[in-house]
Write the structure tokens for this entry.
Amino acid sequence: MIDAPDADDSGEIVKEVKAASKKLYAEEYRAIAQSAVPEAIADSEDISDAQLKKLQNQRAKTPAERHQQHKAELSHGYEVNSYTNSLK
């Protein structure tokens, strides 16, 4: 609580702090997500073309299956044998 004679009684300070906190959290979350996902894709298991087709037709997928599918699609798209985090 702010104990100052000129403190804003309307709650503007609280609103500003909450807004700044939400913005900081969103930026940190985005940075973590952007670094974690390519790493998870690169570390995922390689799959066969038949497994890729199956995943492409599958509606509900686990995060691991999504990473495997994305890795296989990237490998085919870039015509490389293995996707690594440095290709992102």
